[in-house]
Amino acid sequence: MTNQTTMTQQELLTDILNQERTLIKEYASNITESSCTNLRQLLLNNMTEVAADQYTVFEQMKNRQMYETKKAQQNEVQSTRQKVQQLKQETGF
C-alpha cells in the first residue's frame, strides 16, 4: 500500500520559496569563491534569474495572504539609509 501525502498550496509555495532562497545563497557563495570572470558572470546571471523567480513566488504568497509582511516605519528606512551611506563612506565603496 502506498501512502501519498498531498501538500497544500501554501506548503508547496513555502517549499518553493525556501528552495529559491537556498539557491540564491549557494550562487552568492560560489560567486565569491570564483576567480574565472566567465563563470562569475554565469553564476551572477543565474542568481539574478532565481531571485526574480523567488520574488514571483513571494508576491503570489503575499497576494494570497499566505505570507505576511511588516511595513517598515519611515524612521527605520531613514536610519538604514544613513547606516548604508556611512558604511559606503568608511569603506570607499
Describe this structure in words.
The structure is a single chain. This protein has helices at 9-33, 37-63, 74-91. The N and C termini lie far apart (61 Å). It is flat. Helices cover 75% and strands 0% of the residues.
Percentage of residues in DSSP E strands: under 5%
Q: Indicate the structural class.
A: mainly alpha
Q: Regarding quaternary structure, how should these chains be classified?
A: single chain
Please tell me what the overall shape is. Answer: flat
Let me know the number of strands: 0
Rg from Cα = 19 Å
Amount of helix: over 70%
Short characterization:
This protein has 93 residues and is mostly helical. It contains three helices and no strands.
SSE layout:
Blueprint: H1 9-33, H2 37-63, H3 74-91
Helix pairs in contact: 1-2
Descriptors:
0% strand, 93 residues, 75% helix, mainly alpha, single chain
